[in-house]
Amino acid sequence: MDLLDYLVDEATLEDALSTPTEDDIACCRRLDGDVLVLGAAGKMGPSLVRRIIRSFAAAGAGHRVVAASRFSDASVRHALDACGAKTLAVDLLDPSSVESLPDCPHVLFLAGRKFGSTDDTSLTWAINTIAPAHVARRFPRSRIVVFSTGNVYSFVPVSSRGSIETDAPSPRGEYAQSCLGRERVFEYYSRHEGTPVLLFRLNYAVDLRYGVLVDIAGAVRSGRPVDRSVSHFNAIWQGDANSYALRALEGCSSPARALNVTGPDKLSVTDVAAFFGDRFGITPTFKGQASGEALLSDATVCHEWLGRPRVSSAALMEAVAVWVERGGRTLDKRTHFEVADGKF
After folding, report:
1. Closest CA to 147 of 108, 186, 174
2. 322-337 per-position pLDDT tens digit
3. Taking the complete model, does pTM exceed 0.90, yes or no?
4. What SS3 state is found at 50?
5. What is the pLDDT of residue 6?
6. DSSP 8-state assignment for residue 90
7. Cα angle 184-188-194, degrees, rounded to a multiple of 5
8. Any idea which fold 3-207+237-265+295-311 has?
9. Domain limits, the chain
10. Is 242:54 a contact under the CB 8 Å cutoff?
11. Contact 269, 220 (CB under 8 A)
12. Which of 62, 91, 101, 168 is most buried, judged by most C-beta within 10 A?
């Protein structure tokens, strides 16, 4: 996919994020019922909902996509209604609200809390562990893809290929610990209720309006020093992550299985900053001392099962550069990729 074809405005960007692949459409031909997306109003939710709707339509399937969220921004709900989703307001911390959700054989659980998680750690734990318990109890017979994060792993030497799914979790900080808590809750119900679950360990999705590449490009463009305390990272085009998430529904199992989801490349903060510096005609400056360790994931299992990402790291960096040069809108939600102590 050539992302540069989609950089006219946000509408064409959204089209790129939600355009289904042939594999997506084939998956939707095989799915035997509706899909429920919980946390549908977040960063990834809207484009994922639209991708599934378009996949069902192309597959000639009559199934619904139910998009559930608090919908604190009414415009997001209106946009999802307009594209054909069945939207429902839900409070996942309220058991009665969760019980009111319709039965769905396929569930994508995107709800979670990261940004500002050190400001109210009890809320972070509640959203990341209590809400999953309510959902797991409500949908014991559904296939559930649970969005998680590579933060559940320990930092590894930058010379390594990254953590693999069989590595023991060793999360740093309360945010990452609460994410492991979310996984453990779903694992418990998967074992005791037989619920088919897949733990979707994603890092770092980029959609041009946010992501680690956007963070670095923005710092270089504005003349701010780029922090390379964490010197390397993985990244993936959000459209590819959306495709993987949909197709991961067919890989849910009991006991739950984990899947690392990211791009195949180990990217250097220094090299990426230099690329954007060349593009913008600015010499990047840096701060922070690299420790020789980073949060890296090896997504070989994902790529062997679901295929390699359609958008390469080089193409994604080029698209981000063009977006930033043109003054494209950003969501002002930093990844905090440079944080090594787990305090977000």
Report:
1. 108
2. 999 999 999 888 888 8
3. yes
4. helix
5. 65
6. -
7. 135
8. Rossmann fold (3.40.50)
9. 3-207+237-265+295-311
10. no
11. no
12. 101
